[in-house]
Every structure is written in structure tokens, then in C-alpha cells.
Write a structure and sequence with these properties.
globular, alpha/beta
Length: 296
């Protein structure tokens, strides 16, 4: 994995995927420009250059791109906040368009875009990358728009790309303070504050909770491996849990916790990935059980 000649840009470097990928790249001797916006990060390694940059500022982005060989675009609003469609489309779609333009202009070797399982919508699980996306919320619509724009840039301008669709990635350094993020983080926040775990509906919804440790090598290879060129690839565990089961696992790890059921909400019932392409193209290995991942 090591290549000291590279300068890799990671956007959203203060988030779970961006932060852990940045740390992994530095461990392997790669110089990283770690981009953040609202949540400052501190350089912890000579190979790390931290940069505060709003991706909507095209002039600032131009300066950041100097010398960059690969881009891992992990930045964006993580999910749909009600009544904030304008912010969601601007921060996700418009900012990504700026990144795509900058990659084209600076001859970036490959752009890796972290999309979302939300592009699939209801679908027929397990979701295959060849399925026609049918998102049911603005977050999924914005992510799918970004995917389409990136693919068009590949056709029009020769931009090499890989689109990753992560499925419920969790792990150390994840944000547990935002009530619209990963349900495991939401439950942790609720537990810390003496509240019960909130489950919407009966808890029979199924998800593929994927440990960050299992996702890092595949994510890195998405930017470097020839097999991943112009591919859309799920990254997600092939062990599925109902929301109710996941709550029980977290309770067993924490040692306490109560569950409170709320009225069912507008969401996909079963969001489950196929995993064949991630194994074939990115050597993904589903090594970490939910119990082990939460205990670590």
C-alpha cells in the first residue's frame, strides 16, 4: 500500500470515514491533505497537512488541489435533516460538482466518491450495484445526482472514478452528537444522556452494520486498484441485523439500556447490500461481528 510519492486529498477528514482513512494512509507512508470545514482537526503526523476549506469556495479548492494525485471525497451532509433541502443539495451536490471540476482541471488520477445505500430506495434486497436507483428521500436523490455527474465527467473528460456505497459504517471516532446520523451513534448519545434507545416502528427493519476496520483497505483500493476503475461498489457487511437485534447487542456491550418504540417513520425497511463485487474488486473481508466492533 505504501507510496510516499503520492499526495492524496481526503475531504471530510473530520468524519468517521475520512478520519480513519487519513490515519491509515499516513501509516502507509502517504502524504495526505486532510480537508475539513466546520470541525477542526489537528495534524498528528508530518505526512498530514490539515486544511480548512469550504468546498463551495472554488478559488480555495483550486489552491488545495495543487499536487494532488488521488481524491477521496468523503465530505457532505450525512443524512436528510427535515426542511433543509436547500442546504442538503448545496452541500452535497453543488460541492461535489466543484470537486469534480477541480479533479478534471488538475488531472487527478482517480476520484473516489463515498455515496450512500440511500440511492437504492426501497428496491429488492440484497441491493446489487446494477439495480436501478430509486431513492425515497432528498439525501438519496442528492447522492445519486453526484454519482451521475461523476460518471458523465468520466465519459466527457476521461476522469477516472470509483463510487463506493457504504452501508451503516460504524466505529471509533464516529460522531455520536448528531441525531440524524448512524443509529448506533444516536443510541450511544441517548444512553450517555440517560435516555432510552429510540426505535421507530417495531424494529424489524434490517441493516448491514459494517465496522470501519473492515472498510479501510477496500476504500483505499477504490482509489488505487485497476479493478476498481469506473466501478460502483457496495461496501457493507453480509451479516444482517434487525434494528431491534442491534439494540440488544449494544445493550449487552454497554451493560445497560432501555428501548422506547416510536411511531414508524418514512424509511426503507430493509437496506441490505450484496457483497460479491466488494470481494472481487476490493478484497473486502467481513471480519468483525457487531458485538466485537462495538466492544473495541
Amino acid at each position: 500500500m505504501s507510496d510516499s510519492t503520492k499526495t492524496v486529498l481526503v475531504t471530510g477528514a473530520s468524519g468517521l470515514l475520512g478520519m480513519e482513512l487519513t490515519n491509515q494512509l499516513m501509516q502507509d507512508g502517504v502524504h495526505v491533505k486532510a480537508l475539513y470545514h466546520k470541525h477542526p482537526i489537528v495534524a498528528t503526523n508530518p505526512l498530514m497537512t490539515t486544511i480548512c476549506c469550504d468546498l463551495l469556495d472554488v478559488v480555495a479548492l483550486e489552491e488545495v488541489m495543487e499536487g494532488v494525485t488521488e481524491v477521496y471525497h468523503c465530505a457532505g451532509l450525512i443524512s436528510y435533516v427535515p426542511n433543509q433541502r436547500d442546504a442538503l443539495y448545496k452541500i452535497n451536490a453543488e460541492a461535489t460538482a466543484n470537486v469534480v471540476n477541480a479533479c478534471i482541471e488538475h488531472g487527478v488520477v482517480r476520484l473516489v466518491f463515498t455515496s450512500s445505500m440511500a440511492v437504492y430506495g426501497i428496491g429488492k434486497p440484497p441491493f446489487k450495484e446494477s439495480d436501478i436507483p430509486a431513492p425515497i428521500d432528498p439525501y438519496g436523490v442528492a447522492k445519486y445526482a453526484c454519482e451521475m455527474d461523476i460518471q458523465i465527467a468520466g465519459e466527457q473528460h476521461g476522469l477516472d472514478w470509483c463510487i463506493i456505497r457504504p452501508h451503516n459504517v460504524y466505529g471509533r471516532n464516529q460522531n455520536i452528537w448528531d441525531r440524524y446520523r448512524n443509529v448506533l451513534g444516536i443510541w450511544m448519545y441517548q444512553n450517555i444522556n440517560g435516555m432510552p434507545f429510540t426505535i421507530f416502528g417495531d424494529g424489524s427493519q434490517q441493516r448491514a452494520f459494517s465496522c470501519i476496520d473492515d472498510c479501510l483497505l477496500p476504500l483505499w483500493k477504490a482509489g488505487t486498484d485497476a479493478r476498481a476503475s469506473k466501478q460502483i461498489i457496495n461496501i457493507g457487511s453480509w451479516k444482517y441485523y434487525t434494528i431491534k437485534e442491534a439494540a440488544e447487542v449494544l445493550k449487552s456491550v454497554i451493560g445497560n439500556g432501555e428501548v422506547k418504540h416510536e411511531e414508524a417513520r418514512h424509511e426503507v425497511k430493509d437496506a441490505l447490500p450484496s457483497h460479491e463485487l466488494s470481494v472481487q474488486l476490493l478484497d473486502y473481508k467481513d471480519n468483525t461481528s457487531l458485538q466485537a466492533g462495538l466492544t473495541d
